[in-house]
Amino acid sequence: MSGNSDPLSPRAKLAVTAGKAAAAVSRAAGRGSGSVIGGRVALKLDPDLLARLATHLDVILVSATNGKTTTTRLIAEALRAAGPVVSNALGANMPAGITSALAGGSDAKFAVIEVDEKYLAGVARDTDPKCIALLNLSRDQLDRAAETRMMAEHWREGLAGSKAVVVANADDPLVVWAASSSPNVIWVAAGQMWKDDAWSCPSCGGVMQRPGDDWFCGECGFRRPTPTWALSGDHVLDPHGSAWPIHLQLPGRANKANAASSTAVAAVFGVPPQVALERMYQVQAVAGRYDVVQFMQRDLRLLLAKNPAGWLETFSLIDPPPTPVILSVNARGADGTDTSWLWDVDYTRLTGHPIFVLGDRKLDLAVRLEVANQQFQVCETLDQAVQMAPPGRIEVIANYTAFQDLRRRVGN
Known about the structure:
Structural class: alpha/beta
Number of helices: 15
Strand order of the largest sheet: 2-3-1-4-5-6-9-10-11
Shape: globular
């Protein structure tokens, strides 16, 4: 169906127009993209607008603690082989931002939507998705999102009986528990580097056994399902056992895992693995992440890491010592104000790197690095850190609002 075959009601049209006007005012005032305020205004005028905008679209929802923005982008690129796509590519992933994104997609066939973990069940209820991708669950913003087992239960209840095809990571016990209430699940062996949130069984609370890549609960029998898609080195294995090479411009194993899940999603809509993976190669950066920028005659690679699992993945992809590393941590509302998660990150992986520390909570980070026996210097500004860093490309790792601050400073 084309977007024009299901015209919006006068009230819905008014809501869309008012939302776009509010977004334009916000942009003109230099307050960002305006997608969130635009969506809030539109939903105020028509509380059912999100559901109305989704009716003519094949909706794909993507949720996870880590990797959802990148995976959303990879799926969107793959599905463009089958028709026009609308997506919240900049990561405004709560109902207001999602509503703004869909309001701009009247001619689209697909909507590929990143959804904050906390809002997944509600957005799924409103948008009647054809497919839902669940990548991982780990500790993140504990002051806002609550404990991971509670989030898995929230997903499980919200997705029970869903008509959507659920593409889920078979290697994350919390994701498997959440997805198992759905009647139609495609399991992907995407891997799980961070395991510290998955040692107790989400079904019964027993101790999880984890021999090799397998996992099971010795008490209740809850166990890893048999995957039909898998990441194997630099290849995606499809359900027929064929191996398709992954060529990405995005670095790291985590992005290969994202590509494997994205390939499985694309196949649900008839896009072959080879075509999907070829299209994913076009993605060079995602909302500034992985960008290499020039600043003060130096190359800086910008990397986002918001929680222990994300920092672990990021440490695995940076250039080896003696590459200089700048770390920046804030604890504003969008980050979560609790920085206790810093103690869950293994900073000994940075041994040998010259380290420079920035951000609102640079002293919290400095204490953590001191305990980890790392050599570091605390800096007041990015400019100071870059001036002090030895030659070579600089890896810059920051959490959410710190990352946005750095992007503004380097003009990215």
